[in-house]
Write a structure and sequence with these properties.
Elements (H helix, E strand, L loop, with lengths): L6 H9 L7 H9 L4 H13 L6 H14 L7 H10 L8 H10 L6 H13 L5 H10 L3 H16 L5 H15 L2 H14 L1 H7 L17 E4 L12 H23 L3 E2 L12 E13 L5 E6 L6 E6 L5 H6 L5 E8 L5 E3 L1 H5 L5 E2 L18 E5 L11 H13 L3 E6 L22 H12 L7 E4 L18 H4 L6 E3 L4 E5 L2 E5 L4 H8 L9 H10 L28 E4 L5 E6 L2 E6 L7 H5 L8 E6 L4 E6 L8
Parallel strand pairs: 2-3, 5-7, 9-10, 10-11, 11-12, 14-15, 15-17
Antiparallel strand pairs: 1-13, 3-4, 3-6, 4-5, 6-7, 6-8, 9-18, 13-14, 16-17, 18-19
Helix pairs in contact: 1-2, 1-10, 2-10, 3-4, 4-9, 7-10, 11-12, 11-17, 12-16
This protein binds 2'-deoxyadenosine-5'-monophosphate (D5M), fe (iii) ion and zinc ion (ZN).
């Protein structure tokens, strides 16, 4: 008797119940011969009875399947047909399935599945491949090796496209997840992570002070979520830079008066003329005899033009210039029209290099007329061994008892994630990504229902790493309370007239590395640079990846009232031309990686800004831990 089943059987057996087994493992599981089948049956029975299965059992089962499972070529075509038709009666495992199905309340129809698969195929988000790859990563690090093994085994059976099978199974499993399962997962957290749950959830919460109710409305802007069109083609990068070029040239024209694009310069006609040229920086270099060169490009025509400075006073501003950012440069075009000399400007005491810059912010007339506080946090890193549940409760209690707090902004890395860096699993208390989000969701449920939460993402979240990042998929978002608004990274949220620009901050490290005299600590130094360059990731490569999109979501178009970042786990607040900058540190202690890099985190800090006065309050728990 063959032992494989249709995908709905898989989901009924596994997706609908299992907290740990993953769809790709499930595929192999159902195709395995005993004894792996027996082990799996046992797991399923345990799941059905409402108990959770311990990870070792699952690990052993998957490993067993990995070793024993070989896909029989003669069966493979039939298997595919079955998948395509999703015909439940095709199941050869009918005697077991009938029993299982009669107990199952949720039925997935063929149409449901097909529609969902179609949706996913059409998903122009450009991240469907990505999220599929991510879903493979959803495993605990422990089971990954076993999965790779099983994936290989499936590949050997040719005829079956493991990726397509995975995709279908993922979809089916997702479809079967309903609210009751979310509740179920949250409830079982107490069993699995009793220490944290006791501290955070089994305690007397202070009563919620009724909100003052001044908050009126919010609007989300500049979020790539659902808008992603990039396919990763070279053409997409071209359009990204063309868009960047266009938008910056507008900004620079406003700032520098009449300007020429590189391609506008008629080398013969303008020879000897004093002029201002705008472009994207193609390259910068210092020549052997110490002259500073900037090569500007017109992103539409790819024409370039060089500007040279010989004055040593130019060193500081020259070193601030980074490739691919937009600048305006003033100088004199050489007689042969080949190069621009910036020295005349320096002699006249004028700055020859101009960044788009952030003009003085005049938000006065848009402020609410009564106190409304927005709280800012980031980098909770739930799931990591070093997360501080006891400190977190101090934040929760502060929000509950401060009636003017109407908004909570979370700038990414809410969870520690899984597989973010090598051997990360050795420092994880919660090895399951769904559990991590379930825990985070349950933590946010303790905030008052009528406080509006804006949850963004960072490099530890289960979304694509390239920026701009779309927000969490529903399979993770479903763990959070209804008062959560899921936003991408970066995003602008306008609350009661005040523009909050939230960006996780992955470019901070790169900026501090590339621009001399600009530091990670305090991170507001690099954030100021973002505002001067009007771009959130002016330096990329290193750890910053840019997704090719039609437009550049990282350009700072509108001058924000608040720039909120995280990522570097250092607390700082400052003001640049009336823009409030906050970097809200973390809730995770020092990891071994951070210790090895000399990173000393600030733990248990947050900002609160009264939107009626724009006064920034630097907040912290009573006794923040200290590291060295
Ligand atoms: O970032 C936590 C801290 O670690 C923050 O200070 C940035 C730093 N970090 C993260 N990744 C790297 C790499 N690859 N090199 C150097 N420093 C890094 P988090 O995003 O929470 O892991
Ligand atoms: Fe972080
Ligand atoms: Zn981060």
């Amino acid at each position: 008797m063959s032992t494989y089943a249709t995908k709905s059987d898989v989901s009924k057996k596994l997706g609908g119940n299992s907290l740990i087994i993953l769809p790709d493992a499930a595929e192999s599981v159902l195709e395995a011969e005993p004894p792996a089948e027996d082990i799996i049956e046992e797991i399923i029975t345990t799941c059905d009875s409402g108990d959770t299965v311990d990870e070792t059992t699952v690990k052993n089962a998957i490993a067993a399947v990995g070793q024993e499972n070989t896909v029989d070529n003669t069966r493979a075509p039939e298997h595919q047909e079955t998948k395509e038709s999703d015909n439940k009666t095709d199941s050869a495992d009918a005697d077991i399935d009938d029993e299982e199905q009669s107990e199952e309340s949720e039925e997935i129809t063929e149409d449901d599945v097909n529609r969902n698969i179609d949706d996913q195929n059409e998903n122009s988000d450009g991240s469907s491949e990505e999220s599929l790859d991510n879903s493979v990563d959803n495993s605990t690090a422990m089971t990954r090796a076993a999965q790779e093994q099983t994936a290989e085994t499936v590949t050997e059976g040719d005829s079956i496209d493991p990726k397509a099978a995975l995709q279908e199974l993922q979809q089916t499993v997702d479809d079967t997840k309903d609210a009751s399962q979310v509740i179920n997962r949250k409830e079982t957290l107490d069993d699995r992570y009793p220490a944290w749950c006791n501290i955070m959830f089994n305690r007397d919460l202070p009563d919620v002070e009724p909100r003052t109710g001044v908050a009126e409305s919010y609007e989300i802007k500049g979020d790539v979520t659902g808008e992603s069109r990039g396919t990763g083609d070279f053409e997409d990068y071209k359009s990204l830079f063309a868009d960047r070029h266009e938008r910056f040239m507008g900004m620079l024209n406003n700032r520098a008066g009449t300007t020429y694009h590189v391609s506008d310069i008629n080398r013969r006609r303008h020879a000897g003329e004093n002029l201002t040229i705008t472009g994207l920086v193609w390259d910068t270099f210092t020549s052997n005899n110490g002259n500073y060169f900037i090569e500007l490009e017109d992103a539409n025509t790819n024409e370039t033009m060089r500007v040279v400075f010989t004055d040593d006073d130019m060193k500081d501003v020259f070193e601030e210039v980074v490739p691919d950012e937009a600048v305006a440069v003033r100088g004199t075009l050489s007689d042969n029209g080949e190069i621009i000399f910036g020295d005349d400007e320096v002699r006249r005491g004028r700055p020859p290099i101009m960044f788009p810059d952030t003009p003085r912010n005049k938000n006065r007339d848009r402020r609410p007329d009564q106190p409304v506080e927005a709280a800012f946090i980031s980098d909770i890193h739930v799931g990591a061994d070093e997360f501080y549940p006891d400190l977190w409760t101090e934040f929760v209690d502060w929000v509950r008892t401060t009636p003017t707090v109407e908004y909570v902004f979370i700038a990414g890395d809410a969870v520690e994630g899984i597989g973010v860096y090598p051997d990360q699993d050795e420092e994880l208390t919660v090895l399951d990504i769904h559990d991590q989000y379930a825990m985070a969701g349950r933590m946010l449920e303790q905030l008052p229902d009528d406080v509006q939460i804006f949850l963004s993402v960072g490099n530890h979240d289960r979304v694509r790493l390239a920026e701009p990042q779309p927000t969490l998929d529903e399979e993770f978002a479903r763990h959070f309370p209804d008062n959560t608004e899921f936003v991408g990274n970066p995003v602008t949220v306008n609350v009661d007239g005040i523009n909050i620009l939230m960006y996780h901050g992955m470019s901070i490290n790169a900026l501090a590395e590339v621009v001399p005299g600009v530091n990670v600590d305090p991170p507001t130094e690099t954030m100021e640079l973002m505002l001067r360059k009007r771009h959130l990731a002016p330096v990329y490569g290193k750890n910053v990846r840019l997704a090719p999109e039609e437009k550049d979501y990282l350009v700072i178009d509108e001058v924000p009232d608040v720039l909120h970042c995280g990522h570097v786990h250092k607390y700082a607040s400052d003001d640049y031309n009336g823009v409030k900058m906050v970097n809200t540190a973390t809730w995770q202690g020092q990891t071994s990686f951070q210790k090895s890099k000399g990173i000393v985190p600030d733990v248990g800090y947050w900002s609160s800004i009264d939107l009626s006065t724009m006064e920034v309050k630097d907040m912290s728990v009573d006794e923040p831990p200290e590291f060295e």
